[in-house]
Amino acid sequence: MVRKKPEDLRSHRWFGVNDLRSFGHRSRAKQSGFGPEDYAGKPVIAILNTWSDANPCHAHFRLRAGEVKRGVWQAGGFPLEIPVLSVGETFMKPSPMLYRNLLAMEAEELLRANPIDGAVLLGGCDKTVPALLMAAASADLPAILLPAGPMLRGYWRGETLASGSDVWKYWAELRAGTIDDCEWREIEDGIARSFGTCMTMGTASTMACAAEALGMTLPGAAATPAADSHHARMAAATGRRAVELVWEDVRPAQVMTTEAFENAVTAVMALGGSTNAIIHLIAMARRAGATLDLERFDDISRRTPLIGNIRPSGEYLMEDFHYAGGLPALLERLRDLLAIDAPTVNGRTLGENISGARVHNDAVIARREAPVRTEGGLAVLRGNLAPNGAVIKMSAAEPRLLTHIGPAVVFRSYKDLAARIDDPGLPVTADSVLVLQNAGPQGGPGMPEWGMLPIPKKLLQQGVRDMVRVSDARMSGTAYGACVLHVAPEACVGGPLALVKDGDRIELNVPARRLTLHVDEAELARRRTLWSPAPCVYERGYGLLFSRHVTQADEGCDFDFLHRGAPTPEPEIF
Question: Is 378-534 assigned to CATH 3.40.50.200?
């Protein structure tokens, strides 16, 4: 392997040239207390930190950034911590998905505009991991991800609580009248006990596992609990490795290949991962120039057994998964389904990283001969209601609903849903199909996580806990139920979903991968002549940019002008 020389470093153009501009750069470094002995001839490592007081999942990133710096210094590099937009699920409205692309743009431009040789990406909460990896793929500077890690498990009256999943569960029970307000408040007190991301196989853990399988983290990073001391040591090790990545000139383009993305998809399917992973991985692949589409997700799902017994598709939580062996152990059990020669950021192949990894609890990571399910957790659907595709987490739905025909109960918007879902007069039965329109990338706007439509209160009181629901929205990776999501094209742009009316019969057939609206083409054509698009929510700013340029769910919801193209030129230093 040919290693870079100090004069080959990208940062040398800022600090190592004997001209007026370099004088300014060096003098300003001294203004911050750094002299040539700190940075001269050393890789400059950006630590892109998504810490924020408004993002409780990342509360520990202030500390972890310092531990990454320690690792960078130890390896002979020069760390620069740079704050970037903290896209968090908890507080951001109308949807954090609206801001994933903004973080990706910001991170890419910061890497390009500054004297950066390599980067450590601190991300965890759902959109931060894909956004930072999208940026890394576009900037193509040596980069490595440190996932935030899952929080500790929750507790309530002797019961283990799972973030997200048990929120939906007990909210339904509160509405049904089986628990009271006092119990509900106790659950609120016990469900989120530490910093870190959701401890279920929600989108955060799904994307962390996908990133590890993709080769963009150190082995074992995805499932290490945020509060475990091993996470702090992982941070320092990540900083040390970032320096070596620069000297070895290992770039995302060498790691984020088509084969690596297929490894990531295999991991997602084996874990019963979030449906959101489909959107994010497609966006990441398009940035990296890799080939990945909905059909490939479905092909991989059909061949991959679900062996991660983790909520909401299973019984256990991320702590249990970590101590059972974590992702390396799960992947070792799937070795024959992986491209084991795929390179990773630690300098070894994926096969070398997982070799010899052992499962310590077969109840958490099932054996191949006794899987949780014989197929992966997700399925891709098509039909006249979703010409460009839709998705369902079949592993988290009641099996009886995976083949179902019922009459539609249509809600034109989320406001309409909120106003009428608990109306005693709503004409709905357990066999109905709840339909939500105008909740997609443009219609939401930002494709909010509204896809787990609530069960009407009168049905909850009758004991109903799942029913078929169809929308162009997303849903939380912690959610569950027979929810058909990401219907494309979305209603807002005139997709067939916009034409559905109350009483139309909708057929869901997951084994056949079909989603069918039983209305003849002549009637649909008549309805289309009466349809008109709603005006754009935004008339200025980032929202207008988003609405004009976001792609549909099957294309990753990235901006059309950010897909891989000709390389962006390096900045001139005048």
Answer: no
